[in-house]
Automatic annotation (TrEMBL), chain A:
Belongs to the acetolactate synthase small subunit family. Pfam families: ACT_AHAS_ss (PF22629), ALS_ss_C (PF10369). GO terms for cellular component: cytosol. Keywords: Amino-acid biosynthesis, Branched-chain amino acid biosynthesis, Transferase. Its EC number is 2.2.1.6. Pathway: Amino-acid biosynthesis; L-valine biosynthesis; L-valine from pyruvate: step 1/4; Amino-acid biosynthesis; L-isoleucine biosynthesis; L-isoleucine from 2-oxobutanoate: step 1/4. It comes from Flavobacterium rhamnosiphilum. Transmembrane segments: none annotated. The gene is ilvN. This is Acetolactate synthase small subunit. Residues 6-80 form the ACT domain. It is an enzyme of class 2 (transferase). One of its GO terms (biological process) is isoleucine biosynthetic process.
TrEMBL record, chain B:
It catalyses: 2 pyruvate + H(+) = (2S)-2-acetolactate + CO2. Residues 405-552 form the Thiamine pyrophosphate enzyme TPP-binding domain. InterPro entries: Acetolactate_synth_lsu, AHAS_TPP, DHS-like_NAD/FAD-binding_dom, THDP-binding, Thiamin_PyroP_enz_cen_dom, Thiamin_PyroP_enz_TPP-bd_dom, TPP-bd_CS, TPP_enz. Belongs to the TPP enzyme family. Its EC number is 2.2.1.6. Binds 1 thiamine pyrophosphate per subunit. Residues 18-133 form the Thiamine pyrophosphate enzyme N-terminal TPP-binding domain. Residues 209-342 form the Thiamine pyrophosphate enzyme central domain. This is Acetolactate synthase. The keyword GTP-binding does not apply. Pathway: Amino-acid biosynthesis; L-isoleucine biosynthesis; L-isoleucine from 2-oxobutanoate: step 1/4; Amino-acid biosynthesis; L-valine biosynthesis; L-valine from pyruvate: step 1/4. SUPFAM superfamilies: DHS-like NAD/FAD-binding domain, Thiamin diphosphate-binding fold (THDP-binding).
Length: 195, 580
């Protein structure tokens, strides 16, 4: 069964990594629902957050292939219940309508949106949330002459993760083979992609 | 210049040196002895530095960069060392692409160094600028562009480490011309032993080994299938001890061939589309299938949903990504088989599975009657490829390195060649690259000068990198070139005959007079078409003191059998076309 998986990929901060990761998907004709790159809690280590809709088998194989990339430290793969995730959206609407329609303001409060810029002719609102919230506000604002809309990619925090600190320390030690490596993917789903 | 680098090592002080010299110093420090390459504008500074080290680094000037990389592959496959390639930017670099793809899929350790335009010209469509990093990303284990000489020592050290460690593969280092020319403070070469984001091999888990041992000890019909992992791990002895202790019948993939002698009593032959009847058929009868250092390629498994469904599966591999990729395993044994095999062997009961082994014998007899006998010992009609190989076996005793191209001759050779020594079978397995054999044989000869090296190819593949005869002329590797000429692109013709109603669409290929062509390159040769001359001509080829080309005219429309047809299960293997 296909479902959403969020991949969290820690990499060396190096030119070309985005291509190295992206071709893993394009080669298999897997489309990315969302892709975000950002710094991580450790300097010079980058964090990619990728969302795909795929079956467990496909994702499991994909994750192992991505982990094989030399500059990739670690890939975590989680279902939505295992993560805290958010995305941000910006909405541009005509200011005139905002002024007239009190309903809009109520709406914005309801969705926790706030005004980022108020110009004479347009106003930009910002909202943060999951698909549903962001999309509902989109539909509502559409009725009031929405001019422009953009949504960011997903970012996610893994509930059970201890971050990458310890992993990096482990991997920095000169003898990597001394570190225990889980391969009990047969029994433990949550650490299914641990290596 | 030479002395500067030497003294530098003694004093370990920094010296002012060029990027190019740092490249050469890195190669010497890695104990590289042979480079296969071709110069050009963007790599000229490196070639200039090489000029002073001609006595230490044997540079083989090929005739095409594809020849360089296949030669480096042959060198690496036969010696276990890392092959080194030089090429210039643009067309020089793109000519490496096929070889990189081949080395990637066949896990061959290579370090390819390409020149690149000046860093300030990157992205300007400069003369001979190609984005070789992005082109080669999916076909290298790692690649990296160096734009500053200071990065050179570390980049090359990483390249050698990554190419050779874990599951080997090709690495490409692209060095801009300014970095090659740049003077920098060089503190000497430090080999790389660790890359923090890279784990060469997973740890061995004793629990899984114990579980595997229990399953094998309980098995009534255990069956081992092994691939190149045994060779790459230098685990031939460990592997042999493993199968011998538990009396396990073992079949090889084309890439695993020669890890045990082909006439080993427990060896039951080759797997795959044109492999032996018994091992293919009995894959679907065993109760425990133990895969060692192989990756369940589709040419081996045939249709997946009809593959070993009745059996428990133990998969031993160094690459975690191979586990469960194609075949769901019962027990995964991650790790280097050099380490895992002895641990497993230790836990196994001594056994002989006589009855089960007998089933392989019975299948073998059937295959002999229907296929092998007439292929190896025909008494009338044209020459068969099989009889050529059979006589070659008698003459070499099975001690030669056999390098094959791609096609019918490849399948026939790998089916029938006798090989006593490890690393004797060099062929393009995963990619099936025509034009591989001639350059790979040249490289193999440089990698194992003491061994007899025989390149076997079809008339099609022989013409695909034929320019490398020039390399043989100039550098004199004593390679034997055996062309099995059926006047067709035989393997494609076979499929046209069997599956396209004999519509021979562009498979009738014409050839030059190969012997004359060889003569043009000052290589001796001979053509043979009669059965009574075959043995003597093969002997002449082998005994000749230098390179020799022998062209054998074989039957035009012969077919390779047995065959697991595309879309069929391994147990549906057929022995003749009447069964289609
Ligand atoms: C570079 C390349 N192009 C095309 C093919 C497809 N192909 C596979 S086998 C074959 C025929 C090879 O003919 P030949 O070299 O004469 O050998 P034979 O099969 O007759 O022994 C071809 C064209 C290939 N494997 N590699």
């Amino acid at each position: 069964m296909k479902q959403e998986y969020t991949l969290t990929i820690y990499t060396e901060n190096q030119v070309g990594l985005i291509n190295k990761i992206a071709i893993m998907f394009s080669r298999r004709k897997i489309s990315l629902e969302s892709l975000n790159t950002s710094p991580s809690e450790i300097e010079k280590i980058y964090r990619f957050t990728i969302v795909v809709k795929e079956t467990e088998t496909v994702v499991k194989n994909l994750v192992r292939q991505i982990e094989k990339i030399v500059d990739v430290f670690k890939v975590y793969c989680n279902t939505n219940d295992e993560i805290i995730w958010q995305q941000m959206a910006l909405y541009k609407v005509p200011t005139a309508i905002i002024m007239k329609e009190v309903k809009v303001e109520r709406l914005l409060r309801e969705y926790g949106a706030k005004a980022v810029v108020i110009q004479e002719d347009y106003t930009v609102f910002e909202a943060t949330g999951q698909d549903e919230e962001v999309n509902n506000l989109l539909q509502e604002l559409d009725k009031f002459g929405l001019i422009e809309f953009v949504r960011s990619s997903r970012i996610a925090i893994i509930k059970s993760s201890e971050g990458i600190h310890k992993k990096v320390l482990d991997m920095e030690k000169n003898d990597p083979t001394k570190q225990p490596i889980n391969n009990e993917f047969l029994n433990h789903k949550s650490v299914i992609f641990e290596m | 210049m030479k002395t500067t680098v030497r003294s530098l090592k003694e004093k370990t002080k920094t010296i002012n040196t060029t990027g190019s010299l740092a490249v050469i110093d890195a190669l010497l420090s890695e104990k590289a002895d042979t480079i296969f390459g071709y110069p050009g504008g963007a790599i000229m500074p490196i070639y200039d530095a090489l000029y002073d080290f001609k006595d230490k680094l044997n540079h083989i000037l090929v005739r095409h960069e594809q020849g360089a990389i296949h030669a480096a592959q042959g060198y690496a496959r036969v010696s276990g060392k890392t092959g080194v390639v030089f090429a210039t930017s643009g067309p020089g670099a793109t000519n490496l692409v096929t070889g990189l793809a081949d080395a990637m899929i066949d896990s061959t350790p290579l370090v390819c160094i390409t020149g690149q335009v000046f860093a300030h010209l990157l992205g300007t469509d400069a003369f001979q600028e190609t984005d070789i990093i992005n082109i080669t990303t999916p076909i290298t284990k790692w690649n990296y562009q160096v734009t500053d000489a200071k990065e050179i020592p570390e980049a090359i050290a990483k390249a050698f480490f990554i190419a050779k460690s874990g599951r080997p593969g090709p690495v490409l280092i692209d060095i801009t011309k300014n970095a090659q020319l740049q003077l920098f403070d060089y503190i000497g070469y430090r080999p790389c032993i660790h890359v923090r984001s890279y784990r060469a091999k997973p740890n061995v888990r004793i629990a899984y080994i114990e579980k595997a041992a229990v399953i094998i000890n309980q098995a009534k019909k255990p069956f081992v299938i092994f691939g190149q992992g045994v060779l790459l791990g230098n685990a031939e002895k460990e592997f042999q001890a493993f199968i011998e202790k538990a009396g396990l019948p073992a079949a090889w993939t084309i890439m695993g061939m020669s890890a045990i002698p082909t006439d080993h009593p427990l060896g039951v032959g080759m797997l795959g589309m044109h492999g032996n009847y018994g091992p293919n058929y009995l894959t679907n009868e065993c109760d425990v299938l133990i895969a060692v250092g192989m990756r369940f390629d589709d040419r081996v498994t045939g249709r997946l949903d009809k593959y070993a469904k009745q059996s428990q599966i133990i998969h031993m591999d160094i690459d975690p990504a191979e586990i469960d990729k194609n075949i769901q395993t019962t027990v995964p044994v991650w790790g280097d088989c050099k380490e895992t095999l002895p641990l497993l062997t230790h836990l196994l009961d001594k056994k002989i599975h006589r009855e089960w082994f007998n089933e392989f014998e019975i299948k073998r007899e059937k295959e002999t009657t229907v296929v092998i006998q007439k292929e190896l010992h025909p008494t009338e009609g044209g020459l068969t490829m099989g009889e050529v190989i059979n006589i070659l076996n008698e003459l070499t005793g099975g001690d030669a390195v056999i390098v094959t191209d791609v096609g019918q001759h490849q399948m026939v050779t790998c089916r029938y060649a006798k090989q006593n020594k490890t690393r004797s079978n060099i062929t393009s397995g995963g990619l099936g690259t025509m034009g591989y054999a001639l350059p790979a044989a040249i490289g193999a000869k440089f990698g194992a000068p003491e061994r007899q090296v025989i390149a076997i190819m079809g008339d099609g593949g022989a013409q695909m990198n034929i320019q490398e005869l020039g390399t043989i002329m100039q550098f004199q590797p004593n390679v034997k070139i055996l062309i099995l000429n059926n006047s067709f692109l035989g393997m494609v013709r076979q499929w046209q005959e069997l599956f396209h109603e004999k519509r021979y669409s562009f498979t009738d290929i014409q050839s030059p007079n190969f012997v004359q062509v060889a003569k043009g390159y000052k290589i001796d040769g001979r053509q043979v078409s009669k059965r009574e001359d075959l043995r003597e001509s093969l002997k002449q080829m082998l005994d000749h003191p230098s390179a020799f080309l022998l062209e054998v005219a074989v039957i035009h429309e012969d077919n390779v059998f047995p065959m697991v047809m595309q879309g069929k299960g391994v147990a549906e293997i057929i022995l003749s076309k009447e069964e289609i």
